[in-house]
Specification:
This protein is mostly helical. It contains six helices and two strands, in the order αααββααα. Among the domains are: 48 residues, no CATH class; 44 residues. InterPro entries: bHLH_dom (IPR011598), bHLH_transcription_regulator (IPR052610), HLH_DNA-bd_sf (IPR036638).
């Protein structure tokens, strides 16, 4: 059996050109790697696609099913955009980008209004509590005064 050094492939002479330093196609250069011992380019193993996409390519029925599912998804998106655009007042344009932009502005305005109303209701609630507390004191004092005025003095 020959020694291991004899089993290595003989280095091949390649003329140097600019493509050796700068690959023309990055996809092609990425597919090769240098062998650590001999410097001979080796082709990397291809990644096997998932079974579903592989089967879809082989089976046209599955591919057609995918097309139908994608079409239904797009139709559902379009229906939802139409319903969203009907909820937004003063909508000027009907393209999807404008609908989304106006919807986000409309929602932000409503969030600000809710915060403002919550702040007002919080101050009103405090005012009502103060009034009720004050009214209870007035009623209690009046009741106690009336009670003592009804007791005969000895």
């Amino acid at each position: 059996m020959p020694p291991a050094s004899d089993l290595r492939p003989a280095p091949t002479h390649r003329p140097s050109c600019s493509s050796d330093t700068q690959p023309v196609d990055p996809l092609l250069s990425d597919a090769f790697q240098r062998h650590p011992a001999g410097g001979v380019p080796l082709l990397r193993q291809r990644v096997i696609p998932p079974v579903s996409s592989f089967m879809r390519r082989l089976n046209p029925i599955l591919a057609q099913d995918h097309v139908l599912v994608e079409r239904k998804r797009r139709e559902k998106l379009n229906r939802n955009f139409i319903s969203l655009s009907s909820l937004i007042p003063k909508l000027k344009k009907m393209d999807k980008a404008s609908v989304l932009e106006d919807a986000s502005i409309y929602i932000k305005e409503h969030q600000d209004w809710v915060k403002e109303l919550e702040g007002l209701s919080g101050t009103k609630r405090k005012n009502v509590q103060d009034c009720v507390l004050h009214a209870c004191k007035v009623i209690c004092v009046t009741y106690v005064d009336n009670f003592f005025s009804m007791i005969p003095m000895l």
